[in-house]
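In this section we walk through a basic example: taking a raw amino acid sequence and producing a predicted 3D structure, encoded as C-alpha cells. The instruction is simple. Fold the sequence below.
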Amino acid sequence: MSNMRTIPTILSLVILASSPLFAQDTPSTLEERMPAADFSASGLNKLSPEQLQFLNSWLASHPAPGARGMAVSGFATTFYPDDSQRQTIESKIDGEFVGWRGKTTWRLENGQEWQQVESGLRTGEELSHPNVRIKPMIFGSWLMIVEGCDCNLRVKRIR
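The resulting C-alpha cell sequence is shown next.
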C-alpha cells in the first residue's frame, strides 16, 4: 500500500473510531479489541475502510464466543451463541450430493439444514448419502467437509 493511500486510510479510521457512534464502554471494533501489533500482523490494516467497516458490522451482529442467550441478527437466528455448544457435527446428507452452486442447501439425516455461504460452484460429484463433518471455525463460521469428494466449504445453519 503506498503512503498516499495509507494516510487517508489511517485518517478515516481515526475519524470513524472517534465518532460518537463508537463511544462505548465495551470495545466494539477490531481496532479497539486488538493491540495495534496484532491488527497489523493479521493484515487487517490493509483492508479498505469500507471492508473494515463491513467486517466490524458483521462482528457486531454476531455474538462473541461465550455470549449468553440466543442472538438474533435481523431475523436470522444464531444457533450456537455459546462457544461450548459449537462442537463438530457428524451426520449424512439426506439424499444425493451433487456439489454446490450459489446458495445450495443440504438437509442432514439428523434434521439440520445447512446452506452454502461462500461464493462459487462445484459440480461433477454424485454421492448418495455421503458422510459430512461440519466443524466450527473462527469468527462464528462453519466448515462442511464432504466425505468422498475431497471438498469443503463454508456453510451456515438455517434449521
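Looking at the output, two observations stand out. The chain has a mean pLDDT of 75. The chain has four helices and twelve strands. In the next section we compare this with other chains.
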